[in-house]
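Structure (tokenized):
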């Protein structure tokens, strides 16, 4: 049957419109998917940042507590040293006080000896003066009567000598007593000087004791302050632990939503006729060491430390379901590898690539094909490949399935 030109024109217009609508719907769907992914990534990023901020507070709070505990330990050690010094100083003070009492007793005894010598001297001096007065009376006329009473020449000659001897002896005894008194006075002065020195030592020791006691009080106040800091840190740690738990829940929720999205991306290709032989190949030609294993601290995958620029291989045939940038994974690729004989699905994710992936979403890849290169993008601290593996949409330890 021959189709008229008019009908052909109408059919062409319908096909054109249909293709336009199809393209528009396809473009719109892709745009919505990208928007949803960006939203989920943003939510997870925000949750991660909140958790990181809380964990940083916990770390800082713990550091403050440990610093307070260290300071408290130092103050307590210093307090023990000060207490020991105070004990020694107080022993010295007690000894000096005893020495002062002893010196006071010696001074008192020496003063008694001085007073006794002074009394002896006064007594001798009084007798001496009495005899001098008597001798003076003899010189004034009484001596003639005494001389006339002499019975012989010897008495007459020795009378004057006797008087002179008596006077000289009195003077000698008085000088001796005075010298003894002066010596005793000197001894008493020396004892008083020694006592004054002891009192000065006591005053100095008491000043040291007061200073040490003040230092002990300051240390006690410092210890009390550190105890308050430690108690506050404990209270803050408890509050932060609750905040961390809540933030972790939010992060887990955001991660689960992102995982659901990534799984949905895989589900788009679940009807593809892909059979996973489970004959996985290595993701890298070589690597230095495994820097982080699956499950450590909630780690989602296995990290292989390798030089930047090392080629990354697809571990099996598959379809690229995602190839873009993520704040944590950096540049990454996700591949769906199909189903095994029992109907289990397999997918892998390769993260922290140095630059944009070598493949794009929807592209078929073969085992051993280069999909990107090792880098340090996203939340990373050194060149490495972060490799994840999912079976039926659930994360598993990739190292148990993929040779390395």
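Design, position by position:
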């Amino acid at each position: 049957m021959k189709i008229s030109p008019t009908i052909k024109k109408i059919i062409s217009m319908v096909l054109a419109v249909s293709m336009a609508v199809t393209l528009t719907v396809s473009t719109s769907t892709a745009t919505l998917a990208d928007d949803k992914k960006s939203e989920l990534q943003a939510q997870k990023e925000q949750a991660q940042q909140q958790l990181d901020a809380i964990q940083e507070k916990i770390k800082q709070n713990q550091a403050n507590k440990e610093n307070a505990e260290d300071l408290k330990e130092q103050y307590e050690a210093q307090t023990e040293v000060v207490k020991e010094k105070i004990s020694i100083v107080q022993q010295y003070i007690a000894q000096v006080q005893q020495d002062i009492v002893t010196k006071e007793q010696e001074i008192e005894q020496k003063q008694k000896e001085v007073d006794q010598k002074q009394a002896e001297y006064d007594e001798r001096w009084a007798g001496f003066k009495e005899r001098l007065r008597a001798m003076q009376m003899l010189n004034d006329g009484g001596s003639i009567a005494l001389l006339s009473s002499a019975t012989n020449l010897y008495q007459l000659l020795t009378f004057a000598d006797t008087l002179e001897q008596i006077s000289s002896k009195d003077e000698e005894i008085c000088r001796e007593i005075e010298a003894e008194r002066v010596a005793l006075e000197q001894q008493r002065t020396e004892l008083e000087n020694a006592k004054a020195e002891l009192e000065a030592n006591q005053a100095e020791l008491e000043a040291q004791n007061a200073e040490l006691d003040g230092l002990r009080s300051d240390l006690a106040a410092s210890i009390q302050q550190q105890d308050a800091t430690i108690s506050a840190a404990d209270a803050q740690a408890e509050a932060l632990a609750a905040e961390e738990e809540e933030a972790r829940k939010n992060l887990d929720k955001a991660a689960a939503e992102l995982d659901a999205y990534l799984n949905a991306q895989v589900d788009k290709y679940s009807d593809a006729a892909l059979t996973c032989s489970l004959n996985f190949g290595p993701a890298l030609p070589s690597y230095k060491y495994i820097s982080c294993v699956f499950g450590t601290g909630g780690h989602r995958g296995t990290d292989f430390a390798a030089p930047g620029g090392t080629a990354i291989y697809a571990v099996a045939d598959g379809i690229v379901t995602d190839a873009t940038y993520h704040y944590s994974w950096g540049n990454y690729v996700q591949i769906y590898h199909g189903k095994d004989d029992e109907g289990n699905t397999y997918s892998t994710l390769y993260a922290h690539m140095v630059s944009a992936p070598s493949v794009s979403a929807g592209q078929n890849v073969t085992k051993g094909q280069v999909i990107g290169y090792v880098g340090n993008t996203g939340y990373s601290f050194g060149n490495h490949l972060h490799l994840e593996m999912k079976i039926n949409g659930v994360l598993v330890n990739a190292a148990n399935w993929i040779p390395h």
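Reviewer-requested clarification: The domain at 271-404 is CATH 2.70.70.10 (Glucose Permease (Domain IIA)). The longest helix spans residues 5-148.
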